[in-house]
């Protein structure tokens, strides 16, 4: 049987949020390749070899996956959320671009997943109910000045925003700077949601006014959703508040 490569999104955590196509690809796979905690989410079974690696070697991992598939293996590269959102799909295509002839016959497909911002927006209501932007706050792969520029322009245009990779042990400072910038531009009552480990047993959802937001509210398992100027809260005592952005902007 000839090999193939599927680049699949495992969603935010709960296996109930895998798509049927992702479940089918994993059931048919001989090999799963990915970052250690994501590979661990795939149940062990006979005939399935797991290749779990550290996150910092993405293109190497992608090349390894391509080579396995070219040898005839049925390979699923797993990402959390959606594989095209700050994840492995682009890394695989970067690896492919480096040696396109070597893999010219190989079937490669991308299987989407539920990305963190959509799971988080759903968990609190519909913060992303109108126009929005997604920004990766890590400056590992781009200069911080570009992050600041994009933050400012997105907020100036009154997009709701989803911030991925807000804060890590290696980058403790950046998110504080980002928050200071947002506090300079937005009104103090602007709503901001910290959604941690959405759809897992450790899920924590906290929505505060921007003036009350502190850097410590975010970590690497948090996606931060900043509302637009129209985002509001419906209080539902006993049910949990709903945070949403109306679909229309008054003319
Ligand atoms: N491909 C992933 C994003 C990878 S970047 C996706 O589509 O969701 C990693 C960042 O995603 C984390 O730092 C965090 O900001 C966010 N994230 C991933 N899973 C999450 C979850 N279950 N809850 C909250 N944020 C999550």
List strands and helices in order, with pairings.
Elements: E1 4-9, H1 20-28, E2 31-35, H2 36-39, E3 49-53, H3 58-70, E4 74-79, H4 88-98, E5 107-111, H5 116-124, E6 125-126, E7 132-136, H6 144-156, E8 160-164, H7 174-185, E9 191-196, E10 204-209, E11 222-226, E12 232-234, E13 242-244
Parallel strand pairs: 1-4, 1-5, 2-3, 2-4, 6-13, 7-8
Antiparallel strand pairs: 8-11, 9-10, 9-11, 12-13
Helix pairs in contact: 3-4, 6-7
The set of bound ligands, ions and cofactors reads: S-adenosyl-L-homocysteine
Write the CATH architecture name of the largest domain. Answer: 2-Layer Sandwich
Q: In CATH, what is the class of the largest domain? A: Alpha Beta
Helix segment tally: 7
CATH topology of the largest domain: Methyltransferase, Cobalt-precorrin-4 Transmethylase, Domain 2
Which residue ranges are poorly predicted, with pLDDT under 50 across at least 5 consecutive positions? none
Overall strand count: 13
> What structural class do you assign from the helix and strand content?
alpha/beta
Q: Estimate percent helicity.
A: 25-40%
Largest sheet: 5 strands, parallel
> What would the average pLDDT be, to the nearest integer?
96
How are the strands ordered across the major sheet? 3-2-4-1-5
Number of domains: 2
What fraction strand? Answer: 15-25%
Fourth-level CATH superfamily of the largest domain: Tetrapyrrole methylase, C-terminal domain
Through-space gap between termini: 60 Å
Shape descriptor: elongated
**Strand/helix succession:** EHEHEHEHEHEEHEHEEEEE
């Amino acid at each position: 049987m000839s090999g193939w490569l599927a680049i699949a999104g495992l969603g935010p955590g709960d296996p109930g949020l895998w798509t049927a196509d992702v479940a089918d690809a994993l059931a048919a796979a001989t090999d799963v390749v990915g970052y250690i905690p994501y590979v661990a989410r795939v149940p062990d079974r006979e005939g399935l070899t797991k290749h779990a690696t550290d996150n910092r070697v993405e293109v190497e991992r992608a090349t390894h996956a391509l080579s396995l598939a070219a040898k005839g293996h049925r390979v699923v590269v797993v990402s959390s959320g959606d594989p095209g959102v700050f994840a492995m799909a682009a890394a695989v295509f970067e690896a492919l671009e480096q040696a396109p002839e070597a893999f010219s016959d190989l079937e490669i497909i991308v299987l989407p997943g539920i990305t963190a911002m959509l799971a988080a927006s759903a968990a609190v209501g519909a913060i992303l109910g109108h126009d929005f932007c997604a920004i990766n706050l890590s400056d590992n792969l781009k200069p911080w000045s570009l992050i600041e520029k994009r933050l400012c322009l997105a907020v100036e245009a009154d997009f709701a925003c989803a911030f991925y990779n807000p804060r890590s042990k290696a980058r403790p400072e950046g998110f504080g700077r980002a928050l200071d910038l947002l506090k300079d531009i937005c009104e103090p009552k602007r709503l901001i949601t910290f959604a941690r480990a959405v759809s897992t047993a450790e899920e924590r959802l906290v929505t505060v006014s921007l003036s009350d937001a502190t850097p410590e509210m975010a970590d690497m398992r948090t996606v931060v959703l900043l509302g637009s100027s129209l985002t509001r809260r419906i209080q539902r005592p006993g049910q949990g508040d709903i945070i949403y952005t109306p679909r229309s902007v008054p003319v």
